[in-house]
Amino acid sequence: MRKMLISSVLVLFVSAAAQAVRGPSTAPSKTTLAMTPPMGWNSWNRFGPHISDKLIRAQADAMAASGMKAAGYEYINIDEGWEGQRDASGVLHPNRNFPDMKALADYVHSKGLKIGIYSSPGPKSCGNFEGSFGHEQQDAKMFAAWGMDYLKYDWCTAGTVYQQDQYPLAIRKMSAALAATGRPIVYSIHGRGAVWLYAAQEGANLWRTTGDIQDNYARMLAVGFGQEGLERFARPGHWNDPDMLEIGNGGMSAKEYRMQMSLWSLLAAPLIAGNDLTRMTPETLSILTNPEVIAIDQDALGQQGYIAMEQGPIVLMVKALKDGSRAIGLFNREQGNVHITVDFSKIGLHENASVRDLWQRKNLGTFHRNFSAEVPEHGVVLVRIANSR
Questions:
Q1: Nearest to 120 by CA among 152, 165, 82
Q2: Do the domain assignments include residue 334?
Q3: Which segment of 17-21, 149-153, 349-353 scores lowest on mean pLDDT?
Q4: 188 and 148 in one domain?
Q5: How many helices (H) and strands (E) does the chain have?
Q6: What is d(CA 119, CA 125) in angstroms, rounded to the nearest whole number?
Q7: Which of 182, 151, 149, 145 is nearest to 74 (CA)?
Q8: What does R_g of the chain's alpha carbons equal in angstroms?
Q9: Which residue, 185, 187, 129, 126, is CA-closest to 158?
Q10: 3-state DSSP helix/strand/coil % of the chain, to nearest 5
Q11: 3-state secondary structure at position 227
Q12: Rounded to whole angstroms, how far apart are CA atoms 50 and 78?
């Protein structure tokens, strides 16, 4: 039985309250964008605000040459640290590390990739750089003129200028400004409160559902498994976002990074790498580019997985796929080696089903009524199970 993060009563109450505040939405529909969860790279996890034109170009080069682009990664996203000062006309100029944003965007596009930028609905970003408050239309036009394809809109100081009942308005203002440019720009927000209740209606393609991830096992688990109950809000064009991947940054083992990749794919989460693409080990690259795991994340049905069973450190997560099969994650968060069994009748499959291991990339055979696996501590077995004729 699914564990629900939010009771139906609370959801109805908050939704009604949000609608009363919101009124008729002027935000545009963006259903042609992000029809599968966005895949790309962001500068923050590895580099923080210490970024430059040269660094971004090097990451684009590495994405194109390493096999990341071929695996489906396409966005090179600049996080905070690019901002300079506004002039007397209110135009926000990049700092000296970014001498020509249009030229940088053109360079990324020349690699067959797309590029993203960062701002905040508040007067300042989280790092005290300039935000977009009061300059939403001006900044949106500038981003479009540069050739940006993605905007990460981080809440930061917005709470100093917006009351809680105005949070949807803060998101809507930039959504409408982006739409007015005529350029298709994926809109990724980090708001506050139950953003999943209003974000899609206000034009967001994805919305952060948690605080920041960190490159450690405990935080990764808290963020990833904290998505339970939000699956009904995810659909093509609109995604719950548990924050970026930490794979390759060094704070976890390869086994734990495979767990993050498996969990994010089952969650239909955006796959936004946060490592240094120019210094990837073969193991890191193989985790990030496993085509069968990526296919689970990118499945066209667009359903977020749910927890079908949880017993202490053991979790069984199920995701329905467009072809009628199921992606199943058998997670052992703590307790030595554990034997975990999947009962086919409880996940909507017939008595006989074929099983494929997605990390080993091999067929395991046809099984009757159930499938079992030995799962190591801090490990995952990720399988695709389909009815057999």
A1: 152
A2: yes
A3: 17-21
A4: yes
A5: 11, 18
A6: 7
A7: 149
A8: 21
A9: 126
A10: 35, 25, 40
A11: coil
A12: 11
Instruction: For the chain, give the longest Cα–Cα distance.
Output: 72
The boundaries of the domain holding residue 363 are 306-387
In the block, tokens 């703590």 appear at 334
pLDDT of residue 32: 86
Q: Strand, helix or coil at 301?
A: coil
Per-residue pLDDT tens over the stretch 92-119: 999 999 999 999 999 999 999 999 999 9
Q: What is the pLDDT of residue 335?
A: 85
Give whole-number Cα distances, 337 to 56, 255, 376, in Å: 42, 13, 4
Q: Give the residue from 297, 318, 347 where a domain finishes.
A: 297
**Residue 17: which of 187, 168, 213 has the closest Cα?**
168
Overall average pLDDT of the 133-156 stretch: 98
Residues 64 and 185 in one domain: yes
Looking at 267, 297, 327, the residue that finishes a domain is 297
Count the domains in the chain: 2
Q: Treating both helix axes as pointing N-terminal to C-terminal, what angle do 282-289 and 254-266 enclose, rounded to 10 degrees?
A: 20
Q: Report the amino acid identity of residue 350.
A: H
CB within 8 Å of 356: residues ≥ 6 apart? 292, 362, 363, 364, 383, 384, 385
- Rounded (5°) CA angle 224-228-230: 110
Three-state DSSP class for residue 31 = coil
Pair (153, 217) in one structural domain: yes
The pLDDT score that the predictor gives to residue 27 is: 42
Residues 329 and 185 in one domain: no
CA distance 152 to 364: 41
Question: Which residues participate in catalysis according to the annotation?
Answer: 154, 212
Place of tokens 């976890």: 252
Could you list the beta-strand ranges (E) of 244-292.
271-273
| DSSP 8-state secondary structure symbol assigned to residue 41 | E
Rounded to whole angstroms, the Cα distance separating 127 from 372 reads 48
Residues 278 and 318 in one domain: no
> To which residue do tokens 């990526």 refer?
294
Average pLDDT of 379-383? 98
In the chain, the amino acid numbered 356 is R
Q: Tell me which amino acid residue 79 is.
A: D
Please tell me whether residues 372 and 239 are part of one structural domain: no
User: 3-state class of 78 per DSSP?
Assistant: coil
Length of the chain: 389
